[in-house]
Design a protein that fits this description.
By secondary structure, this protein is α+β, with helices and mostly antiparallel strands. The chain contains eight helices and nine strands. Strand 8 and strand 9 (205-207) form a beta hairpin. Helix 4 (62-74) crosses helix 6 (110-119). The radius of gyration is 19 Å and the shape is globular.
Length: 218
Amino acid sequence: MSILHFLGLVDSHKHFFEGWSIDEALAALKPYTHEEAYLLIYSYLLDKAQTYQEDRESEYGVAELDARYWVSQYLKGADDPEQIETRLEYLPASSQEFKYGTSRYYVSSPSLKEALKCKYDFYCQVCHTRIYRPKWVRTLPIKEQWKHLNADVHHIEPLSQGGSDLLENMLCLCPNCHRRFHTQEHILKKAQSHIFVFNQITKDHVPLTIKHAVRLRA
């Protein structure tokens, strides 16, 4: 997802530093840090440069590698699918983090998101699509397969609008379904105790695979 989405900024800031290195972006933004929006972007990039430098030896960034390590430790000793599924039923809750300057931005827990993907075996909860990376092999143990799969995690209620960074506010999605939620093509609806996806263009009702408690704001 873009930093624009991550920070909840307005469209006028989109693509401001597309294609630039972090150092180039910091240098360009620094003269404008007296403006709140630019200070917010500058603070985020500075923190990212200092804390989450990309691991050049890997296709993953450090934050994602840390998250995968957290999941591997959390599932240590659970080797068969039934044990793994049982362990994932009791994922630790995450707390929402805030970082303050003159403004604030929102940080979602990479570890919790990674664990949610594992809970759904990297299948989209809406269309059941699974995104494979080149080194995926069907015969690998399930926890090894996860290293070569990809999925998105969507916050039902955006963090920038007061949504929580808890599992009950998250969905595991493929990139296409994730986009459809952000464009409002897909919305979640609830009939009695049943939660489903409603496509506002086709008017279709799409079942939602649910393996964890999902809460919709009334």
